[in-house]
Amino acid sequence: ARFVHEASRYFVKILVVPAQSSGVRQHWFHACDLGTMTGFLLMQNLRRRWRQRLKRALDLVLCLPVVLLCAVPGLLLGLLIRLDSRGPVLYRQRRLGKDGKAFDVFKFRTMRQDADEVLARYLEENPDLREEWEKDRKLKHDPRITRVGRFLRKSSLDELPQLLNVVRGEMSLVGPRPIVEDEIAKYGEVYADYCRVRPGITGLWQVSGRNNTTYEERVSLDRYYVTNWCIWMDLWILARTFPVVLTGYGAY
To answer: Domain boundaries in the chain?
Structure first.
């Protein structure tokens, strides 16, 4: 307080950063004048039901027209997938959503039918890559991915069918990346925050480097999103998603 009083004699604006734990610094604060004391107001917007309804309304308003526009291109992509390799056009994977409820997330199939066998053989022949796989369950040069699948992943078009998940109310346009049950332990205490929202097609992770970020950074971004959500953040993320998708940054 003495330092602030002294600095006020010489400067018009003074920024005061209080010493807090790293977890607290992830929130947006509003300073409050409490008379002889100063407090910090912390807002949890997603605790308000009407804000959750507003987020859902935004999903439907933006999603339904896109579903209609993407119907024909989606059919063409499905035809390319069938011509490129054997197997179904769509791929389903069990993921965890809001309140920890499991659901099937839809994607265009990007891998070969014998993906498990190909992966096991590849890791056996390249033991130095096993650590990369076990760390994030991803490989930069994945032998399971088909030719069309590589294009779909690079352009993020493989996630186009997730618009159906949004319409069904299982996902949101913006939110944390949907996780599988094995990832709960990696999220730790942040999993409770994850369960408060629907997972999203895009999110802070996707516009912040995607696969170029560590898993810990991804978890931190998910917590930041949930605890600081506002409608303008969703619109900002959606706007940032387009250049990221066009450049393919961090996608593989």
So the answer is: 2-42, 47-110+146-247, 112-144
